[in-house]
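Example record

One chain of 116 residues, shown exactly as stored in the release files.
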Amino acid sequence: MSLRNGKVQIDETARDTRTSHGQMFSGLTPSPCPYFAGHYRGERFRCLEFYEVKIHGDPRVGVPPERVAPDVSNLADNIVRAGLSALKTRGEALLPGDFRLSGTGGIPSRASVCER
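Predicted structure tokens for this chain:
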């Protein structure tokens, strides 16, 4: 996957967002924690392995760190199963903002988007 050249495999990126997240947020994390970009809570990094996220009074928000990766994987499988695979096999589909996906699962280059 490369965000710079506009090539993204839809299924691969939807199933595991860590690579794209790491590329998008590289250099934007606190300097001692570059691993914040491209990794999930619960992974074996000092500030991620045991990091809790929750809102007191709303148990629907947040999961324990050890459940983040499996829960995200399950969500991604459901997303791909429900729509992205069908969209990918359709050839070209019009998306919001007039972006088009090719049948190969790519995204438009910056030049092609600017030409519209």
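Notes: The chain has one domain: 10-114.
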